[in-house]
């Protein structure tokens, strides 16, 4: 009897060696798929046929005919014993081999290979196919069927196992980029990419320090007149605007900043800081301007970013700027626009000096006649109280929605002036006049030391402040309680926003914490 024995098992995650019956000098048969590394074991596998089950055609094996039944039984018993021995050896090899090292770790026993002549004779015979399914107790050992495998190749699982092998290797970047499963998405959430608060505050300070008073930008997408074309213009129009640009670049006051557009020469944006001694102090007020095609024969068109608040008789909630120089109010002589002498610089300075003044109530036409009586002064002080509240709301408006190209100025300005603004809020809530000079902490400490030094002198201890109730009482006015209530709300909102920008608010935060402790207790 000619026996053809195939190996039964392979190590886990290895490729089984081809059987002798399907092996040639050219290598394994291309029709048989090579299992992928890391193939999971199956509970039930199709095993190779037992040699004793081969039904051989007697006509093709004449030397097998005429044998006695006893000799056939003994031969079958010997073959079965040899088969069991081979299977036992294969299982021992599989148990001793490593899982997932090299393909073909289980080698065949050459002593059981059939000779080439025998293989030729065996191939000419007809073989009956019969399937055997058993529970595989040794899940690490399995083989594939002659007819093919029921295993479906999983490319994603294969790539994952390859990636696992390269996890501990330090490959050059070029190699990693060429292998899909080695590419890792770059993340910005590492600890080295976070900036500390001190670094953010320093960056804000540097940008504010180098913020230019006049500069050109590429576009003004949020400009109020961005969607309004200027129309056809000529060389004279261009020359005159360039002349205005030159004046703005050289002669702007320190408290006014301007940006113009290179692509839209008709657009301009300016911001001015509210003057000290007025209810507008330390505030930022933004204006958008457009030079019409008839410029300089006609004045520029100016829009005020009000945020829906009217904090001046000349600055409407709709954004209109009422000024005789702009032709939006009647005027006489030099108050009107002059095409030969008037400039954009003149417009900006006029708004800052004539509109944002100490007592804007009297800007209203006809109200200037009440400036010299008590009733007019009382109303002007009340108007200033309301104006300062609107100015604080405008600060919040700018902090939360800074106009384009002025983000660094807004952040840096309120980082630098936040402490002074909060101190003014506290000072006004104590009953002092809006716009009056707020004493520095050093001055308050000196006054306190002087009062303690005099000791028993009661007159020095109860010394009234110059800007307190005396001035308001002289005008016959008592500030309503709503002012303090509204200012307390604005103070808390400003304190939060200034903290974000890095302003020095330690004193006010400590006071707030001190007040909250008894309430919590």
From TrEMBL:
**Positions in coiled-coil regions:** none
Q: Name one Pfam family in it.
A: UQ_con
GO MF: ATP binding; ubiquitin conjugating enzyme activity
Residue ranges of domain UBC core in the record: 236-396
Q: Where is composition skewed (Low complexity) in this entry?
A: 12-29
Composition-biased stretches, type Acidic residues, lie in 125-153
Quote the EC number.
2.3.2.23
The record's annotation in SUPFAM superfamilies points to: UBC-like
Residue ranges with Pro residues bias = 30-40
The UniProt entry, under CDD domains, shows: UBCc_UBE2O
Note the InterPro entries from the entry: UBC, UBQ-conjugating_enzyme/RWD
Cite the entry's keywords alphabetically: ATP-binding, Nucleotide-binding, Transferase, Ubl conjugation pathway
Q: Which domain of life is it from?
A: Eukaryota
Protein name according to UniProt = E2 ubiquitin-conjugating enzyme
**Gene3D superfamilies, sorted:** Ubiquitin Conjugating Enzyme (3.10.110.10)
> What are the boundaries of the region Disordered?
12-51, 115-153
């Amino acid at each position: 009897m000619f026996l053809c024995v195939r190996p039964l098992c392979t190590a886990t995650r290895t490729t089984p060696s081809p059987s002798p019956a399907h092996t040639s000098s050219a290598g394994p048969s291309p029709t048989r798929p090579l299992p992928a590394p890391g193939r999971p074991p199956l509970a039930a596998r199709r095993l190779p046929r037992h040699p004793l089950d081969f039904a051989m055609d007697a006509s093709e094996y004449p030397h097998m005919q005429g044998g006695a039944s006893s000799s056939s039984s003994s031969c079958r018993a010997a073959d079965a014993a040899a088969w069991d021995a081979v299977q036992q050896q294969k299982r021992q090899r599989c148990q001793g081999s490593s899982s997932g090292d090299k393909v073909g770790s289980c080698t065949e026993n050459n002593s059981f290979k059939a000779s080439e002549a025998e293989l030729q004779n065996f191939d000419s015979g007809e073989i009956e196919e019969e399937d055997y399914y058993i529970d595989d107790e040794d899940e690490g050992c399995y083989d594939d069927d002659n007819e093919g495998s029921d295993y479906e190749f999983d490319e994603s699982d294969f790539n994952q196992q390859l990636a696992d092998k390269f996890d501990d290797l330090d490959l050059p970047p070029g190699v990693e980029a060429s292998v899909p499963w080695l590419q890792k998405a770059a993340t910005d959430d590492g600890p080295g990419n976070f900036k500390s608060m001190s670094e953010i505050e320093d960056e804000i300070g540097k940008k504010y320090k180098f913020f230019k008073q006049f500069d050109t930008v590429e576009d003004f997408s949020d400009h109020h007149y961005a969607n309004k074309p200027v129309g056809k213009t000529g060389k004279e129009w261009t020359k005159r605007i360039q002349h205005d640009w030159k004046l703005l670049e050289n002669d702007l006051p320190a408290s006014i900043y301007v940006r113009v557009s290179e692509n839209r020469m008709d657009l301009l944006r300016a911001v001015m800081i509210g003057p000290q001694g007025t209810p507008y102090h330390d505030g930022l007020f933004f204006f958008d301007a457009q030079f019409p095609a008839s410029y300089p024969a006609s004045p520029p068109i100016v829009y005020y970013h009000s945020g829906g608040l009217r904090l001046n008789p000349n600055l409407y909630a709709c954004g209109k700027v009422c000024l005789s120089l702009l032709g939006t109010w009647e005027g006489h002589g030099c108050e009107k626009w002059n095409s030969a002498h008037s400039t954009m610089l003149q417009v900006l300075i006029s708004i800052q000096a004539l509109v944002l003044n100490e007592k804007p109530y009297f800007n209203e036409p006809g109200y200037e006649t009440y400036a010299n009586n008590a009733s007019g002064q009382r109303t002007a002080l009340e108007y200033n109280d309301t104006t300062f509240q609107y100015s604080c709301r405008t600060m919040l408006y700018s902090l939360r929605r800074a106009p384009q190209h002025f983000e660094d100025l807004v952040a840096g300005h309120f980082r630098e002036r936040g402490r002074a603004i909060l101190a003014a809020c506290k000072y006004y809530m104590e009953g002092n006049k809006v716009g009056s000079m707020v004493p520095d902490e050093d001055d308050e400490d000196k006054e306190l030391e002087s009062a303690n030094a005099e000791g028993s002198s009661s007159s020095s201890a109860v010394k009234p402040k110059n800007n307190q109730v005396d001035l308001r009482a002289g005008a016959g006015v008592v500030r309503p309680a709503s002012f303090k209530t509204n200012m307390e709300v604005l103070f808390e909102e400003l304190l939060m926003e200034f903290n974000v920008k890095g302003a020095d608010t330690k004193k006010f935060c400590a006071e707030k914490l001190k007040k909250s402790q008894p309430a919590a207790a």
